[in-house]
Amino acid sequence: MSLEWMFSIVENNWHLFLRAMGITLLIAIVGTIVGAVIGFIIGIIDTIPKKQTVKNYILRVINFILTCYVEFFRGTPMMVQAMIVYFGLDLAFGIDLNILTAGILVVSLNTGAYMAEIVRGGIIAIEKGQYEAAQAVGMTHFQTMVYVVLPQVWRNSLPATGNQLVMNIKDTAVLSVIGVNELFFQAKSISGANFRYFETFFIASILYLIMTFTATRLLRYMAKRLDGPQAYDKKEVL
Amino acid sequence: MDTVIDIKHLSKSFGNNEVLKDVNFHVNKGEVVCLIGSSGSGKSTLLRCVNLLETPNGGEIIYKGKDILQEMKNIEAYRTHLGMVFQQFNLFNNLNVLENCILGQIKVLKRSKEEAIKTATTYLQTVGMEAYVNARPNQLSGGQKQRVAIARALSMNPDVMLFDEPTSALDPEMVGEVLKVMRQLADEGNTMLIVTHEMQFAREVSDRIVFMDKGVIVEQGTPEQVLTAPQHERTKVFLQRTTS
Ligand SMILES: Nc1ncnc2c1ncn2[C@@H]1O[C@H](COP(=O)(O)OP(=O)(O)OP(=O)(O)O)[C@@H](O)[C@H]1O
Ligand SMILES: [Mg+2]
């Protein structure tokens, strides 16, 4: 390994690395956010109280479809999912996705499947007393979820969401199979030209670390903000 | 006398466990009624049926002349007339003290934020918690939480306050502060239905005491009638056990 090589690789390719980092971050961040939204929607649908009505029948069908979705995306490699989404959509529906869009879609759907489980568990973990207290002041199920339950679920699932973001930053690498120009793909193409595989990928690994480390810190900061001040100020009482 | 809630032939089963059997009783305006009875006799279930946290299997719940069970469409509106205080406090964990007391006012009663804060502040003063508006539930002691829970219920200006063993989850040294608030509410003429194991308290504040056993109301009357001169064998046995 030679330091000179590293410097020269960075010097000659820094703009390519930066661009690739940008794409990696874009896919990971958008994918995590969209995935979290999908996860919350599924978690909410899944925990709607079941009553013996026609609406319930429709709910069951929806729940079945959602279960299939979750099982598929949790049970297959993301690399395979990327191939299926990118080539399959074209084949089946003639939808020719832009590669970047396909990448974001795959990561979103994948994250959504994991987040659905996290949110579902988070909703179930909220004490019954929270629902009952909300009902007792006359709130509907919807109001109870929006103002009482989901804010708590969101706070409790923030660490898991952070984990997903970190995983997504790393796992975007598999999107190179469909030609997404993210950091791994870029490193591969740079090293293919200079034949300095170790140095190039060493640089890539540092860049991945910078991104994941920053993401972890940012999320920890967010959680702290949500928790509010450690101590409350007692108001002066006359 | 104005009857606020009139319960007729109420029954409730969990599976084949018949928990309430043909329960009849009423609460008048301004009256303080204490429900007593041994563990598992159905006191909580009865209270929870009154605000429909449990759905009764049969009978009637007449509120201001209307049978609520016949008009199940607007349960939410009905519940705003009943203030519920739970054994486990159940403050909203994601909200601070003030927010706990204004959420229902704003979202359910559609009061303006200013009005809600004003009302909440009044009742937080009643329970002596006005200094803690910014505190979160996990920063409060049990007694403080329960007093906030009482203020939250009062903030909805209900017709009846329901209490399910409000002091049973508290450390002994905090029971007094909560009972003091409840005594004050009773003196102010609030209508209250209280499930309690605090016999001394029940004797002092109640207009009427209702004794339940195995899902039926065995006897009811003034504190003297029920606690000093009980008519039924089951009441005598229960009182002996609780006083000894
Ligand atoms: N959700 C439920 N599902 C099944 N059984 C229940 C449920 N809630 C209560 N029960 C049963 O109903 C009976 C009455 O319970 P309830 O909680 O009303 O008694 P209680 O008088 O409030 O007792 P305690 O003084 O211990 O609070 C008990 O046998 C209990 O096991
Ligand atoms: Mg009970």
Automatic annotation (TrEMBL), chain A:
Molecular function GO terms recorded: transmembrane transporter activity
Topology with respect to the bilayer: Multi-pass membrane protein
An annotated GO BP: amino acid transport
Name the record gives this protein: Amino acid ABC transporter substrate-binding protein
UniProt family annotation: Belongs to the binding-protein-dependent transport system permease family. HisMQ subfamily.
Subcellular location(s) of the protein: Cell membrane
Taxonomy, superkingdom: Bacteria
A GO-annotated cellular component: ATP-binding cassette (ABC) transporter complex
CDD domains according to UniProt: TM_PBP2 (cd06261)
Any one Pfam family match given in the protein's UniProt record, by short name: BPD_transp_1
Membrane-crossing segments per the record: 20-45, 57-77, 83-107, 197-219
PROSITE patterns reported in the protein's UniProt record: ABC_TM1 (PS50928)
Keyword line: Amino-acid transport, Cell membrane, Membrane, Transmembrane, Transmembrane helix, Transport
Residue ranges constituting the ABC transmembrane type-1 domain according to the UniProt record: 21-219
From TrEMBL, chain B:
Intracellular or extracellular location(s): Cell membrane
Keyword Transit peptide attached: no
InterPro entries named among the record's database cross-references: AAA+_ATPase, ABC_ATPase_HisP-typ, ABC_transporter-like_ATP-bd, ABC_transporter-like_CS, MetN_ABC_transporter-like, P-loop_NTPase
CDD domains (alphabetical): ABC_HisP_GlnQ
Membrane topology category: Peripheral membrane protein
Entries under Pfam families matching the protein: ABC_tran
Alphabetic keyword roster: Amino-acid transport, ATP-binding, Cell membrane, Membrane, Nucleotide-binding, Transport
Keyword DNA repair: no
Domain of life: Bacteria
Main location: membrane
GO molecular function: ABC-type amino acid transporter activity; ATP binding; ATP hydrolysis activity
Cellular component annotations (GO), alphabetically ordered: plasma membrane
Annotated ABC transporter domain residues: 5-239
UniProt record similarity statement: Belongs to the ABC transporter superfamily.
PANTHER family per record: AMINO ACID IMPORT ATP-BINDING PROTEIN, GLUTAMATE_ASPARTATE IMPORT ATP-BINDING PROTEIN GLTL
Protein name: Peptide ABC transporter ATP-binding protein
